[in-house]
Write a structure and sequence with these properties.
The structure holds two protein chains of two kinds.
Chain A: H1 3-27, E1 37-44, E2 55-63, E3 70-72, E4 79-81, E5 86-90, E6 96-99, E7 105-106, E8 112-114, E9 117-118, E10 136-137, E11 142-145, E12 148-152, E13 155-158, E14 162-166, E15 169-172, E16 176-178, E17 184-186, E18 188-190, H2 196-231
Antiparallel strand pairs in A: 1-2, 3-18, 4-17, 5-6, 5-13, 7-8, 8-9, 10-11, 11-12, 13-16, 14-15
Chain B: H1 2-27, E1 37-43, E2 47-50, E3 66-68, E4 72-79, E5 86-88, E6 95-98, E7 102-106, E8 112-115, E9 121-122, E10 128-129, E11 135-137, E12 148-151, E13 156-160, E14 168-172, E15 175-177, E16 185-188, E17 191-193, E18 202-204, E19 213-216, E20 218-220, H2 226-258
Antiparallel strand pairs in B: 1-4, 2-3, 5-20, 6-19, 7-8, 7-11, 7-15, 9-10, 12-13, 13-14, 15-18, 16-17
Helix pairs in contact in B: 1-2
The chains are: A alpha+beta, B alpha+beta.
């Protein structure tokens, strides 16, 4: 057997993984705060030098930080952080998570939440409004109830690569740096940043590369079978 | 390989549900006091194929994990509470709320319900009821001999009766507010029900504590905008098509794979 057969196999697998990411990015085109992902590939060579075949493997996932399309929703509790900044929420277990899904909601106890988790205010704790009150958000992040400021929303800059940890929730590999000034666009929502055009091109490219890998596998198979044929003792 | 089939299917399912919501909105484009719904999407948890690792001997490690998302789903529907258009009807028993708040009504079975539709009527015994015959809370009875009824912006209801110069006060229409009005549940017939998520109703006089004042002779139309819904429909259809393209691509790749042997 030649190594080439397995190289072709890893190539076909890699394209399949790429297709999975495209499917996910397209499915989430209308998910607020969704960040598209692309697997990154690298060459893998056997360490002891017994083979020179360069296999391809997916090594990590790259989260696209670009801003998604913003749509005007008119809902007073929809916000979009300006710039490459994130809202902070408290995840179960007390860990801080970050999101750009600014679809805020108030529950019956008056707690503000984003992406299904309590939204953290300037003090680092959850933002609470009095029961029965209808809060509004100002562009500087202040949460206002009946004319008085009850708390304010703070934004964070995330350093390093991002990791997806849950629905529209991200964690940075580096530090999360709080920003002194908050600037929000109120009444707007940022949709998923998966790009339809990119996806359409990727669909074609993935399919063609996959076909090529399969073609290579078939060629190697033919070569192998011819080698077997050569060695057969005719009788 | 098969994951992309299911991921794309979640996309198609979510778009289908979104279209259902758009259809409901459009069907209610002229329903009094109707508040349009919005489909809220969320992504499904990613599957981690390889976790992130720190640097190891002879190997830089992997600073980011290898993970793949599993698609989308509709997490909830948000009720859009924006004001609908005010329509002048000149009917003295049509009342609209200019701002926040809901009218409280009592169903025939005694349950409390809430509505923005103020197209009230008077039943056989003179009580103020909704178009469906549910009692308006707090109860107001209009005397049979009343010549005219006036509903003031602050909720005071007065009637002019023959033989008296001064109008007679019949009662005060109150509004209710909720901590989370988005958590109210639709019951049909323009009625909403309080839930654990919405919180308990708080009684407020119209115009106080952030509620709207009442406007007699006006009805609040639906807040559905046909143009927005049409654009939503286009976006929904195209997104559905793209996900179906992914399924086609996956299918063709699978076909190539099965033909290998």
């Amino acid at each position: 057997m030649t190594d080439g057969l397995y190289v072709g196999m890893t190539a076909a697998t890699a394209r399949a993984q790429q297709l999975e990411a495209v499917a996910d990015n397209l499915a989430n085109a209308q998910t607020p705060g969704f960040k598209a992902t692309t697997p990154t590939f690298e060459t893998y060579m056997v360490g002891d030098g017994s083979s020179q075949a360069p296999y391809v493997v997916a090594s990590s996932t790259n989260v696209d930080r670009r801003e998604g399309t913003t749509v005007i929703s008119g809902n007073p509790l929809d916000v979009v952080p300006e710039g490459d900044l994130f809202l902070a929420v408290s995840m179960p277990g007390g860990q801080r998570g970050f999101t750009r899904a600014g679809r805020l909601s108030v529950d019956a106890s008056g707690m503000l939440s984003a992406a299904g988790h309590p939204l953290l205010g300037a003090s680092g704790g959850p933002i609470l409004v009095p029961p029965g009150a209808a809060p509004t958000i100002r562009e500087n992040g202040e949460v206002v109830v009946a004319g008085s400021v009850v708390d304010s929303i703070s934004l964070f800059k995330l350093e390093g690569e991002l990791q997806r940890v849950g629905p529209s929730l991200l964690l940075p590999q580096g530090k999360a740096v709080p920003q002194g000034e908050t600037r929000l666009r109120v009444g707007e929502l940022e949709m998923g940043n998966g790009n339809m055009l990119d996806a359409a091109v990727q669909l074609v490219a993935v399919q063609r590369h996959f076909d090529n890998a399969i073609q290579a596998i078939q060629t190697y198979r033919k070569m192998d079978s011819q080698a077997v044929e050569l060695g057969r003792v005719r009788g | 390989m098969l994951r992309s089939l299911y991921t794309a299917a979640t996309g198609m399912q979510a778009q289908q549900l979104r279209l259902d919501i758009t259809a409901h909105n459009l069907a209610n484009a002229s329903t009094t006091g109707f508040k349009k719904g919005r489909a809220d999407f969320e992504d499904l948890l990613s599957e981690t194929i390889r976790p992130a690792t720190g640097p190891q001997a002879g190997n830089g490690g992997s600073p980011t994990p290898l993970e793949v998302g599993l698609g989308t789903r509709l997490s909830s529907t948000t009720r859009f509470l924006a004001q609908g258009d005010m329509v002048a009807t000149n009917n003295p028993l049509d009342v609209s709320i200019e701002g926040n708040g809901f009218f409280a009504v009592q169903r025939p079975n005694g349950d409390a319900a809430f509505t923005r539709a103020g197209n009230f009527r008077v039943d056989a015994t003179g009580r103020l009821v909704t178009a469906h015959g549910d009692l308006v809370e707090p109860g107001i009875t209009v005397p049979q001999e009343a010549l005219s009824v006036a509903i003031k912006p602050d909720g005071v209801v007065q009637a002019q009766v023959p033989g008296r110069g001064e109008p007679v006060q019949l009662g005060v229409l109150e509004l209710v507010t909720f901590t989370n009005p988005g958590g109210l549940e639709s019951m049909g017939n323009n009625l909403l029900r309080a839930t654990e998520a919405s919180g308990e109703p708080q009684r407020v006089r119209p115009g106080e504590d952030g509620t709207g004042a009442l406007a007699q002779g006006y009805l609040e139309g639906s807040n559905v905008e046909a143009a927005t819904e049409m654009i939503d429909m286009i976006v929904t259809q195209r997104a559905f098509e793209m996900s179906s393209k992914v399924i086609q691509t996956t299918d063709q790749m699978l076909q190539k794979l099965t033909n290998l042997r």
